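User: Run a structure prediction on this.
Assistant: Running it now.
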Amino acid sequence: MRLARRGFALAAFATLTLVAACGSDSNDNGGGTAQDLSGTYSLVKFEQQISGTYTEIPGVTGSFVLTATTYSLTVSNIPVIGSISDEGTYTAVGTPTSGEFTQTSTVGGSQATGTYSYDTATGILVLTTVVNGVSQRVTVQKA
């Protein structure tokens, strides 16, 4: 059971780090156009897929700041590990409302990929990714 919780904590950390990956970069990976989603975001919801259904993990809070090529984040109340801070670089390529991203942490060296969708009217950004074999979805809102 302790190992399962540790795995969840690592997966949660990796997914929450991915939230910061949605932004812009001057490079194009051939899948679309670099997108600029820079700004300050607050965590709305963190979900993990359990038996085929996304289930919200309650109590997780966080804030994310994106510039043109970098991110920084602080997340609290993560089961098992508590709070984290991270920063790094990213690219987001697609359309203004959806696309793919890549992220590299300069703190822990982790790398990740995923997809994003962004509602320009509400400022809601949703990331869906698979981390350590577990599908997860993170929702944040632009301030």
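The beta strands are 33-34, 39-50, 53-56, 61-66, 70-78, 82-94, 98-105, 111-119, 124-131, 134-142.
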